[in-house]
Amino acid sequence: MQLNAWKAASILLFTSGWLASATNPLTPAKIVADITTDELYRVLRSLNSIAKKNGGTRAFGTPGYKASVDYVLERAQTRFATEMDTHVQNLTFTYDETREIKVTGPAGENVFVVSPQYNPATPLPGGIVAPLINTPVNDVTGSMCLPEQWEGIDATGKLALVKRGICAVSAKLKLAKAHGALGVILYNQTPGEVISTPTLGAENIGLLVPTGIIPLDVASAWIPRLAAGETLTVKLLVDAIAEERETWNVISETKAGDPNKVIMLGAHLDSVLAGPGINDDGSGTAALLELMGSVKKYRGFPHKIRFAWWAAEEAGLIGSTYYAEHLSEAEADKIKFYFNYDMIGSPYPIFEISKSDNSGVGSELLDKFLTAAGKNVTYGEFDGRSDYVGFSELGIPIATLFTGEGENDPCYHQACDNLDNINWDAITINTKAAANALGTLALSLDGVPARNPPAPALRGRSKLHHKSQSWATVAQKGIESKFPSV
Ligand SMILES: [Zn+2]
């Protein structure tokens, strides 16, 4: 009797539990409630320790990135296998790293120096030791940007001292090589040691001489001495590598929902080489993982939810651009909205939304939620500096959240972008705002404008060529938005 009663009760419990999980309908409020600071913290602590175990970085082309992919797969592919379909998209891109750069002045002094992306290596271990040759300055057309500016200059066997600015650094280095220079000492246009990193472009590998970018003040002291006929011998040493490396986007979508109506969310999974990338973009990565952990519990949502963790964003939006460019028109049509979450936990946050012209209710949902939570929402330019560029090229409606760099994140792209570099209130409220917007669009596309497809792709034989050309063009745009070429 007692046993029977227990049995009956347990069957009832089991049945109602099963019914609940089979029919528990998704609502925006439930996903919002599922998001907790503790769980976001747990993910970021794991990403931080992944970086610690792998030389302090989770950058594209390093073991720390591979470990980050495995961490996402442990949830998406292993634990949530019943609810999520997950695949890994392989791609390769040129990995670039300046391992050491050194400029030694005429008195043997070490000079502050910055290396551009894709800087060619000098001979090692000695570097280039050569006399400096000064070159004319032109602040209108740019210094040493045009072939005629090099006319009559024989830089053979020398290091050319050239002013930065106006045209691409690579253009100056190409002309320097043509005029016999062994390398270029490039000086910045503004005084001080805050020198931005340009890219020379992966497409210029093999065409350029090595360079080091030094402060204006240092060059200003050398130029009158050169003008007076003094010989200044300088050393430039660049130890750099550039090689193709494999990398991976992780794409995971709910089994539930109409495959023709997809709500997509993206965050980049890589960091810069300099640090563990906990705000940039561990914060977005954690948000997506927690949102996935929530939505997989529910049923009854008509639209499919797709999460993407992008590869090699910091190398120039490479993974997301590759994904977007390899979508067919039909597949692009199925993506009804794209949300991008890159840096959503800056220690001194702003609450900045950027959106496409056809963002409609998508960005309004983020705005209303944050405003209701007492945050001062601002709007940023759609400046092409994160993974939405490929989706923007496809005309897909987009909204993004961003909590700022610079004074908002003093550890931006540095080793100190670690667990201490997060505003826990900001990451939590932003993930909840993302939850509300996701939950709403998963149920209804009311107020979501249609995609603005670009001009129809060329048909027939030329189509493939066009496709790869356009991937190269978009990738170049992404690279230049991360690293200006000038
Ligand atoms: Zn980022």
Description:
It contains 13 helices and 13 strands. With 486 residues, it is α/β, with parallel strands linked by helices. Strands 1, 2, 3, 4, 5, 6, 7, 8, 9, 10, 11, 12 and 13 form a 13-stranded mixed sheet that branches. Residues 1-20 and 457-467 have low confidence and may be disordered. 36% of the residues lie in helices and 22% in strands. The chain folds into two domains: 25-83 and 255-482, 3-Layer(aba) Sandwich (Aminopeptidase), CATH 3.40.630; 96-240, Glucose Oxidase, domain 1 (3-Layer(bba) Sandwich), CATH 3.50.30. Strand 8 (258-268), helix 7 (278-295) and strand 9 form a beta-alpha-beta unit. The protein has helices at residues 2-23, 28-34, 37-53, 63-79, 169-178, 216-227, 278-295, 318-325, 329-334, 361-372, 389-393, 424-443, 462-482; strands at residues 84-104, 110-111, 128-134, 159-163, 183-187, 211-214, 233-254, 258-268, 303-310, 335-341, 351-355, 377-379, 398-402. It is elongated and about 85 Å long. Helix 2 (28-34) runs antiparallel to helix 12, helix 3 (37-53) crosses helix 4 and helix 8 (318-325) packs antiparallel against helix 13 (462-482). Zinc ion (ZN) binds at residues 268, 280-281, 313, 342-343. It is an enzyme of class 3 (hydrolase). Its cofactor is Zn(2+). This is Peptide hydrolase. GO terms for molecular function: metal ion binding; metalloexopeptidase activity. Its EC number is 3.4.-.-.
